[in-house]
Write a structure and sequence with these properties.
Blueprint lengths: L1 H23 L7 H11 L7 H13 L1 H8 L13 H16 L5 H15 L4 H36 L1
Helix pairs in contact: 1-2, 1-3, 1-5, 3-5, 4-5, 5-6, 5-7, 6-7
């Protein structure tokens, strides 16, 4: 199943890459459904969990602006449109999974994103992806701790007065 999910992420990345490229080029014949179906069919003998691929691809595309809004503050020196297309898509996939796939451990999500960046990105892509996703995860894990500490302080203060 794990290697099947790895292949699923590759298919989602290929699909999103083609969609992004063709969309930017103004391709009037663009159909995400056709691209996704073709890419899934290409690996039909090796992949069982096509629902995961579809959920990942459609989810990343539907939430692209929200994902970018979360990524941007973590990489302020790299405006979203200046991040290499492949790196941007890998970051979106990783962040989408962190936010929407609670059954996949966060460290697995980040490791998978790093592996995608190594395989399909540039020389420094894996370090960049690891840094951005690691920071997003750390920030997300710290928020509940900070909120709990803040509410505890308020509670103590209120009881004292």
């Amino acid at each position: 199943m794990a290697s099947n999910r790895h292949l699923g992420r590759i298919i989602a990345l290929q699909t999103l890459y083609e969609q992004d490229l063709r969309s930017e080029a103004g391709d009037s014949n663009l159909s995400l459904k056709e691209i996704l179906s073709r890419n899934i069919a290409r690996y039909s003998e090796s992949i069982d969990d096509t629902e995961f691929v579809e959920r990942l691809t459609n989810g990343v595309l539907a939430q692209a602006k929200q994902l970018d809004a979360k990524i941007q503050p973590v990489a302020p020196e790299w405006p979203i449109d200046q991040i290499a297309r492949m790196d941007r898509l890998v970051l979106r996939i990783g962040l989408y999974e962190l936010d929407n796939e609670p059954d996949t451990p966060p460290k697995v999500v980040i490791n998978e994103a790093v592996e995608l960046a190594k395989a399909f990105g540039g020389d420094n892509s894996s370090k960049f992806v690891n840094g951005v996703l690691g920071t997003l995860l750390r920030d997300r894990e710290e928020k509940p701790v900070k909120a709990k500490a803040k509410s505890t302080r308020k509670k103590v203060t209120n009881e004292e007065t």
